[in-house]
Amino acid sequence: xxKPIKIPIYQLxxxxxxxxxxxxxxxxxxxxxxxxTIQKKRYDIDLALRGAHIRKFPKKSFHVQFYKPKTYKGVxxxxxxxxxxxxxxxxxxxxxxFFKDIGVHSPQCRHIFLKVNSQNSxxxxxxxxxxxxxxxxxxxxxxxxFYAVNGDANFSLMSDVDKKIxxxxxxxxxxxxGLSEDNAxxxxxxxxxxxxxxNEFEKEINQYLDIDRYLRYLAGIIFTQNYxxxxxxxxxxxxxxxxxxxxxxxxxxxxxxxxxNGKYMREDFVSILGYNxxxxxxxHTDKYRKQYQLILKNILNxxxxxxxxxxxxxxxxxxxxxxxxxxxxxxxxxxxxEPQRIYDYIEGRRKYISTHLDILN
Length: 361
Fold this sequence. Notes:
Elements: E1 9-13, H1 16-24, E2 32-38, E3 41-49, E4 62-68, E5 77-81, H2 91-101, E6 109-116, E7 119-128, H3 132-137, E8 145-148, E9 173-177, H4 182-195, H5 198-204, H6 211-224, E10 234-238, E11 245-249, H7 277-283, H8 286-302, H9 306-324, H10 332-356
Parallel strand pairs: 1-6
Antiparallel strand pairs: 1-2, 2-3, 3-4, 4-5, 5-7, 6-7, 8-9, 8-10, 10-11
Protein name: Spore coat protein
Keywords: Capsid protein, Virion
Pfam families: CotH
């Protein structure tokens, strides 16, 4: 039996006036000076709120940039996610670990306990940033990284936000790393996805996209049932050596049977076919549809079942248990019920996917 994971305690210190300003103007993205103490080592940092709708929640999520020392464990920045709407506090980590297990490059993450100016702020998920250091740590070649920041990151010529023709094919993306000329490569990719004839698409899409990685990413969305994962909650990377694009997951707390508001989501809510233009075109092609079907079958057999997932869930719960009562934003009674709800979701989703594999024939 695995031992509980040690949850580190982070001490964040912010000038009270700065902290007051941060809470008063939640849409201000200007970073504030602060210090973060981790295992008795002090770091001078720039601190800002992170996220979109999550800024409105009482428990804030933070973006941390290190400047003295300039790095922490080899990274320049981290994200501290409050996981406010997830009653279990583990869905995001469970998802990102699952993506890694099925062959998708995924951010490292771990739970921490955060104190802000010596007061308990609660359990957070520390997330690795998807940036140049992310690529270097995995031995991936250099290349631009684009964050999908809204529904316009749908691989389409049409906006998912206002349902009109896009004025720019980079709408929905923010370039996290790379050069301005890298935008042209992203535009070219999206244009080709939308304009190639079917016979051209089958023969030539592998010149633009790492197809196996994308189909595994698609499978990850389908198993975890992240409704937003097709047009949001991902980072898009282009390998400069091969020219191929690859997708990395990001922000996967609305999963395993819960939506972005923490409400119950039926196990059959997200179709096995997914959506967005790139997915539709790949699954319209016999060869790639069969490849996707085989990936789903293998994951059902190897990773998406109770014997594989239950020990991971139980270990996270055992590790977090001593800190739940110290989290001022958590309902312990509700938290205790969540593992069974996740187990029930796994069983229901397994049944749904297993019985719908035939539509990929």
